[in-house]
Amino acid sequence: MATTTLTENSPRKNPLAPDMEEWDEFLKGRYQEGKSEEEFRQYDKEANPDVAEFYRLNHGNQCLDYVLSKEKTYFGLDKGDKSLWEAAEFLNTLVDDSDPDTDLSQMEHLLQTSEAIRADGHPRWFVLTGFVHDLGKVLCLYGEPQWGVVGDTFPVGCAFSEHIVFPEYFAKNPDLHHPVYSTEYGIYEPHCGLDKVHMSFGHDGYIYEVMKNYLPIEALYMLRYHSFYPAHKHGAYQHLMNEEDVDMFRWVNEFNKYDLYSKGHAKPKLAELKPYYDDLFAEFFPAKIAW
Ligand SMILES: [Fe+2]
Ligand SMILES: [Fe+2]
Asked: Which region ranges are annotated with the description Disordered (predicted)?
C-alpha cells in the first residue's frame, strides 16, 4: 500500500491490489484458531505497516458525516443495472497481476467461498450469499479509496469500541470528542437494533442495500455485518443490539468461517460451475438488478 495522507481520497490506478489481499491475510492472521484476545490486541503495527496505515486512514475518516454522505451517494442504487455475472466480471477487472502469491481473482474468491458453503450441504440461499458477499467491492471501481471499501466495520454516531483493531487511530476522527457521538449510545437508544445504526461505510453495507429485496434475512445479516469483527469476534456493541440481532449473529458467525478460511482450496472451474450458478441466480433474481 502506498503511503498516503489522512485526507487523500483519490483511488489508485489499480486500487484493489495488492492491498486488498494483504488485508485479507491480516484478518486471517488475526483470527487464527487459538489466538487469544490479548494476542489479537497486540497485533503488530511494525510487522504490518501497510495495514496499519490503511487503518489510520479508515479510523481517521469514518465519521458520521462521511458515512451519511456516502449513504446518500450509493444507497439510492442509481449506478446502473447489472446481472450478477456482469457485476462479478466488472469486479474481476481489478485482479492483481503484480503479486505472485495471490493468483486468485475476485471471482475465484467468491466461488471458493460459495463452493465451500455448498460442499457443506447448506441451503441454496446460503451458497448464493457466499457468491455475492464481496461484490460490493465494486465501490473501488466507482472511485472510492480502499480504506472506504474494506476493513473492519463499526457503528458511527456513538463511541468507538476499544475492540476495534488499532483503536488508537481514532485520535484523528472528528467524532472522537463530539458531545453526543462520543457517548456510549450516541444518537441511538439502548438496544435499538442494528438496522437503526449507521455502520462505517464499505462494501458490506453497499451489497446489503443491493441485495435487500431479494435474499432472506439471515443472508442479509451475513452481508451487512460480515466485516463487523468487533461484534462477531469480540462481542462489542451488545448495548445497541436487539433480540433479533443477537439471534441472527449466529448466521454471521457461521458465514465468517467460510469467508476467512476457504481460500487456498482448489481453484474453482468457472465453466463447470456456471450452469449451477445460472440456475441459482435465476431462482432469486431477475435478469438484472440495480447497483
Ligand atoms: Fe468482504
Ligand atoms: Fe470475502
From this structure: 1-21
